[in-house]
């Protein structure tokens, strides 16, 4: 059984969205987490080493980090065609965009929001405006991150784009807005998120 450790309206919604796109059986265990306002607490039932969500348990495997969970799931269900498996075309592109959200997109835009100056050459991510350029150039060429087909990279990094647009951390452009509309109109997205991201 797949068990998702979950808190509504958090990043674990992305994994629930993916599980719904996959159409596989799973259970959720709702846990408490620490909040920005100082409320909340780590839930001892949560296997995540930092008490965060999402975390996944499956057949004795613990998986944490949204990108890693997405990769685990799409490799587990290759027949669902939501992520290229080893040996398939676009596998490298897929892994790159899965890691891009937590490695580049989130830190770059969070640093800008916090007013921290980017130090070229010293940080493992690019400056926020450069990230915006790359996203716009990529998505101007194709409807989804990997091309014509939707994949879990659209849930992980694309879901991040939806969230960051909503909270005005990413500049709105026709390319990104139309991409976000493609994602948020998907039945599985609406089932999990409603009008929330
Ligand atoms: N890099 C992690 C981030 C996970 C994360 O920060 N989740 C938030 C909820 S959106 C959380 O659990 N926060 C509680 C805390 O920071 O203790 C991932 O992508 O899975």
Give the strand tally. 4
Bound molecules: glutathione
CATH class of the largest domain: Mainly Alpha
Helical coverage, percent range: 40-55%
Beta fraction: 5-15%
CATH architectural type of the largest domain: Up-down Bundle
Number of H/I helices: 7
- As for the CATH topology of the largest domain, it is Glutathione S-transferase Yfyf (Class Pi), Chain A, domain 2
* Strand numbers in spatial order across the main sheet: 2-1-3-4
Mean residue pLDDT: 97
Uncertain runs:
none
The structural domain count equals 2
Largest β sheet strand count, sense and barrel closure:
4 strands, mixed
Sketch the topology as an H/E string, one letter per element.
EHEEEHHHHHH
Determine the N-to-C terminus distance: 26 Å
């Amino acid at each position: 059984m797949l068990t998702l450790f979950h808190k509504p309206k958090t990043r674990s919604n992305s994994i629930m969205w993916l599980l719904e796109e996959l159409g596989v059986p799973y259970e959720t265990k709702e846990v408490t987490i620490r909040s920005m306002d100082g409320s909340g607490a780590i839930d001892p039932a949560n296997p995540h080493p930092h008490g965060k969500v999402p975390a996944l348990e499956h057949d004795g495997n613990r998986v944490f980090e949204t990108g890693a969970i997405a990769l685990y799931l799409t490799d587990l269900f290759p027949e669902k065609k939501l992520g290229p498996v080893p040996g398939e075309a676009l596998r490298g592109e897929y892994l790159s965009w899965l890691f891009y959200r937590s490695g580049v997109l989130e830190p770059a835009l969070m640093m800008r929001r916090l007013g921290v100056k980017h130090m070229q050459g010293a940080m493992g991510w690019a400056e926020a405006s450069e990230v915006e350029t790359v996203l716009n150039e990529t998505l101007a060429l194709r409807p989804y991150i990997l091309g014509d087909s939707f994949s879990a990279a659209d849930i992980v990094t694309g879901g991040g784009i939806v969230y960051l647009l909503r909270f005005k951390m990413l500049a709105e452009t026709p390319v990104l807005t139309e991409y976000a509309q493609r994602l948020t109109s998907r039945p599985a997205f609406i089932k999990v998120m409603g009008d929330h991201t």
